[in-house]
Amino acid sequence: MIVRKTVFTKEVITSDEFGKSCQPITRVAAMSVVRNPFAGQDQEDLSELFELATELGPRMMSELVEMLSGPAVSYGKAALVGAAGAMEHGAAVLHPKLGAPVRAAIGGGQALMPSNHKVGVMGDRIDLPLGHKDAPWAFDFIDTMTLSIADAPRADELVFGVALSDGTRVHPRVGAGPKGK
């Protein structure tokens, strides 16, 4: 596994789009840029990509938990595959083994971790979805972090990431859900 870099992002939101104040909401994300061993290949066995999450997931999560202002209530994951790869390469990094280190780092999580994966080029944005860690129908917690890395992914790379939030969207008004969890 060749990791070119890992990028951490922290947002502290203190008002909505119109300037109306809110309690601070912290959202954090970690994205690792790695060489895709299957770029340009039609590969059936993608288990080598499963192990990326096993190796990098715990490292990413220890940093993210420290960056939050309060306990994590929402989580999500995403992958952006370079143009010589396949969308399934992103799925292979995200789905079989990334959830376990995330749940271990935040002390649980009963709900399915929202995810997104796509093929793109350097500098593309990826929308990393967030959802409540225990209540999948808690609409107030459904959110998105739009992320990018200017020089990634190269054609033979993939970027995968996880994000956490310690709150809802700013001033949610569309649905009920657990408050303050």
What do you see in this structure?
There is one protein chain. This protein is an alpha+beta fold and 181 residues long. The chain has one domain (3-165): 60s Ribosomal Protein L30, Chain: A. The protein is built from 3 helices and 7 strands; from the N terminus they run E-E-H-E-H-H-E-E-E-E. Strands 1, 2, 3, 4, 5, 6 and 7 form a 7-stranded mixed sheet that branches. It is globular, with a radius of gyration of 16 Å.
| Class per helix and strand makeup | alpha+beta
Largest sheet entry: 7 strands, mixed
Shape: globular
- Please write the CATH class name: Alpha Beta
> Into how many domains do the coordinates divide?
1
Spell out the CATH superfamily: BB2672
Mean pLDDT comes to 94
Please report which band the strand proportion falls in: under 5%, 5-15%, 15-25%, 25-35%, 35-45% or over 45%.
35-45%
Provide the helix percentage: 10-25%
**Amino- and carboxy-terminal Cα gap:** 37 Å
Low-pLDDT segments, ≥5 res: none
CATH topology name, in short, is 60s Ribosomal Protein L30, Chain: A
Question: What is the name of the CATH architecture?
Answer: 2-Layer Sandwich
Number of helices: 3
Radius of gyration based on Cα positions: 16 Å
Number of strands: 7
- The SSE order reads EEHEHHEEEE
